[in-house]
Fold:
Amino acid sequence: QMIWCFFIGIGFGQIFDLDYFKIFGGKEIKRIVCGDDFHLSLDILKKHIKIGSGFSPQSEQIRFLFEIILEMEYDKQLLFFQFITGNSRLPVGGLAAIYPPLTVARRVADDQYINEDEPLPTVLTCTHYFKLPAYSTKEIMRNKLMIAIADGATNFSLSWIHFN
Structure:
């Protein structure tokens, strides 16, 4: 990450006179260029994640989700938020500064006969809208989240219209 920030800083220097940035310390420059490191707690998650349709703050799946996020290592948390926001870092101000706010809503299976434990979660990155199936166990949710996060980190699929 620091190497990435260094290269951004070099490009920055081609656009801006770096003498203006001498008033900032190294940590401040890193924060300006790379965003904040963040630290999560249950209180932060409850305060800054909006619960959308199909779930309530008391839903078992929301409890599972928050526990899983807090149990993740920092690099997995970054991938999780990248999956939802499309950005590899949270903005300055952390989770509280995401706009529109991150919303978790229930993903209803497309086919009423599909088992709720089968589909992966999906996301609308532009609106930070996370659609989470009502998984029956925390372990199933963890596994499905890890698959979605890994897939989202390496793939970005669009529907294309082909004209002949």
User: Anything to note?
Assistant: The radius of gyration is 19 Å. The chain is about 45% helix and 10% strand. The longest helix spans residues 138-154.
